[in-house]
Amino acid sequence: MQSCSPASGNDLIEYHVGDAEPVDPSSSTKGYSERHIHSEVYKGHPSVQAAVHSHSEAVVPTISGVPLRPCYHMAGFLRAEGVLVYEISEHWRGGGGDKRDMLVSNEGLGAALAAHFDDGVAVTLMRGHGFTTVGDSIEEVVLRAVYTQKNSAIQNIAALTTRAAYLVGGGHAGASQGGSGTCRRMRPRVLPR
């Protein structure tokens, strides 16, 4: 787990793109196992200048079978037909070659994820995990990460609101027209006067 203490330049680890190993072999730590996400994206897409990988809780629900689509103008970089979803289980090596822990912890899994960025794709969701976004600069990928998260939150709320609208319209089999009267009768008992 990441320390909550302030970060400094000493906390940075520089990696080789070719194998995701630290440039300084005497480094006391190799860093995060998911460094293969970044190395394989850079290796497979030389035009990419920056990548962000996130475990945003707002984005994880969007892999529930409903495609994540742009919901407002700041998320126009998302694919209109829905953001691609990387399904890691399709890429695990047989015979116990890969840990089945949903982490992109080797070159093969990283390369499979990186392939999702072909054809100029900016964001790829990762089932049960989070997402990765790429771009031309650090600023661009940070904004894409922020707006992917905000767009996901908007879409999630819209989905809940749509369901609630159906309940109000009487379209739900369990709802009754008398429900609002019950609420009115309960209000004096629940709310202070």
From TrEMBL:
A single GO molecular function term of this UniProt record: aldehyde-lyase activity
Residue span, Class II aldolase/adducin N-terminal domain: 10-154
Cross-referenced SUPFAM superfamilies: AraD/HMP-PK domain-like
Keywords carried by this UniProt record: Lyase, Metal-binding
Gene Ontology cellular-component annotations: cytosol
GO BP: any one term: pentose catabolic process
Top-level taxon: Eukaryota
InterPro entries: Aldolase_class_II_sugar_metab (IPR050197), Aldolase_II/adducin_N (IPR001303), Aldolase_II/adducin_N_sf (IPR036409)
Spans annotated as Disordered: 1-32, 173-193
Biased composition range(s): Basic residues: 184-193
A matching Pfam family: Aldolase_II
Protein name according to UniProt: Class II aldolase/adducin N-terminal domain-containing protein
